[in-house]
Structures are given as structure tokens and as C-alpha cells.
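2024-03-11 09:14:02 DEBUG pipeline.ingest accepted 1 chain
2024-03-11 09:14:02 DEBUG pipeline.ingest length=277
2024-03-11 09:14:03 DEBUG pipeline.predict start
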Amino acid sequence: MKQIKGLAINDISCVGRCSLTVALPIISSMGIECSILPTAILSTHTGGFSGYTFLDLDKEFSPITNHWKSLNRDFDFIYSGFLCSKEQVDLVINTIDLFKNDNNIVLVDPAMADNGRLYSLFNMEFVDKMKELCKKADVIVPNITEACLLTGMTYIDGPQKKEYITELIYHLSKFGVKKIVLTGVSFNDDEIGVATYDVLSDELRYYAREKISGYYHGTGDIFASVLIGALAKGMDLLDSAKLAVDFTVDSILETLKLDDYDERYGVCFEKVLSKLV
């Protein structure tokens, strides 16, 4: 039996469930050794909080990764999430080049936009840089807005038509990736989920759960962490996506049971970790 080893690249928000404070416990609970490469340290995440602290860790990337290389460290997967600058994208590309091999998986979550809008931190130059990163990936996990920015297609809020989703997937496949998981796919007012596309088998499939009103911080990180863990353990693409959707929805449902829920602190995924163990 071989120990599965993964690398998660994201920031550390010390308070508020997102980024590495989500990825590390979720991936670890799946029996995977999860190494981390922090891009920055923040006192809280940036959604709903003011006065947060921010420490950029760009200068630490090369010393850290060079040390790993001297140890002959390898990874079964590399997962990158939110990146706050073009320079950080370049650092992640360099890291992938350093540790990519014929057998491991590179998953890129091009976290930069939602609800039809680019995050205020970014501009189209960042989008172009993110395209470069996506071309390094085996698996990409954009939402509808991010997919439109990456492909140049017009954003359409849900419900969408299957023809529209198929066209988005087709254009995303031109990045040379092996697998695509498109999130935020909705064909009616009551459900929302994902479209999965395996490029090699040319298989496009869908999965949806009930739509829950509201906005929940960190759910994209939760979804991507479960997805890469499942893929690394050998599950097929649709089953991995189903597990990620179900875990994310169940985390939200558990959170909504709490009397003292404060949306700024993210969802209580800890309460359903036993479903992954």
C-alpha cells in the first residue's frame, strides 16, 4: 500500500473557514498526506471582515520548493486555489513545472470571479495569466463566470440551457486539460450542480442537488478539496464530483441548523467530515 501525498497551494486565513484551513482537514480526513504551500497569511478572509492583516509569502516560494526538491519530495497531486496576483500565478506555474510528472494530477481552481463579475482585486491581465495556469492543469474547476472569462463567451445566469453548457465545455477543453468540472450549472430554479467532462472519453455528465438560497464563504474550497481527494484515490470523475457536491451541500445544511450562525465564518464542514473518513 502506498501513501497518497498531495500539495495544496492557497492562502492561510487564520479565522474564517476557507482556503488552506478547509483544504488541509478535508484532504487529511480522506487518508491523504496533505502538504501545504501558503501564498499569504491573513488574520481573517476578506469576505465580510474589515481591518484584516495580510502578509505576502511570495519570497518564500522558491526556498520552500527548492528544499523539497533537495529531499526528492514528490506529490500525487498538486491543487492550486485562490491566488491574489499575476506574480503568484507565475510562482505556481514554476512549482508545477518543478514537481509535475507523468503520473500525478494537477488541479487548478481559477478562483477569480462569480455572479457574472470579476472580483474587484483582478483585471483582464490577471485573467490572461490564469489562462496560462489552466493550460498546465489536468483538471480545471471553474464556475460559470470564470469559464466565460477564460473562453470569451457571454455570461448567462441560471437556469442555463444544455446547449450553452456544452459550448462552454467545448471551449474550455481547448486548454488541453484532461478533465473539466464546471460548477454552478442549473437547468431549473430548484436545483444547482455540476457538469463533468472527460476529454479522453468525450463523456459529458451532470449532477445536481437542491438549491439553497444565500451565499456561503469557502464552499468553493470545500468542493475542490473533496474533488481532488476523491480523484487522487482513484474515483472516476462523476463520482468524485458527486461526493464533492453532496459534502458541500450537507455542510451547508448542518450549518443552517445552528442558532448562532454567522455567515462570515464559513460553513461547518467539520460536522460532516465523518462522511469522508
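2024-03-11 09:14:41 DEBUG pipeline.report The domain at 5-272 is CATH 3.40.1190.20 (UDP-N-acetylmuramoyl-L-alanine:D-glutamate ligase).
2024-03-11 09:14:41 DEBUG pipeline.predict end
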